[in-house]
Amino acid sequence: MTQVTKRFANGLYGITPEWQDHAKLLHAIEAACRGGMRVLQWRQKKLSYADSLTLALETKAICHQYQCQFFVNDSVQLALDCRADGVHIGRDDGSVTALRKACQAQGQSLFIGVSCYNDINLAQQAIKDQVDYLAFGALFPSSVKPEAVVASLDLFAAAKAVMQAHQLGPTERPALVGIGGIDCHNARSVVEAGADSIAVISGLFESDEIEATARYLSNLF
User: Containing domain of residue 23, as a range?
Assistant: First the structure.
């Protein structure tokens, strides 16, 4: 199995759709990996823990074949149990400090990404917590989360100004991820606004040509 990079991988960041056809899901993930996806987040809210763990392990194996990092959404325990590369947490998923303690207790280290929504204050706390990336969104209307708050593309410049004030260099600062309604039509504007990575669900996995779409989005970087 190929070793994944030791830093959070910038570029295309896929998030799994909640399809019931798991063979179709695994096939789609491999197609996205072939197209250059650098990170995949496992997000399955409807599966039992046991089923999610089994399928997550299969997915991680596919990702690592293509040097794609494997993250788990929300569940620190699932991330630890399947020895994921990282975990993504939101406002209600506990603190970064508690997460690191849980990792330490099991002798593991995870990349940590946090949702900052449209709040530069949350971003400032994430920077202080030395997370690996912070995410702003929804940048555009999202079919997955239609009720999500609207985030401005200006937040990327604002976050970079905060990091500059803290004198954080390129290898020290967290990556900036854009999320929410991103597709081939608007992704370039997110990259040009300063995002290091774009998180995509429907715009990638609902595409007729997943591998080609992944390649297009990856080439923006």
Answer: 11-219
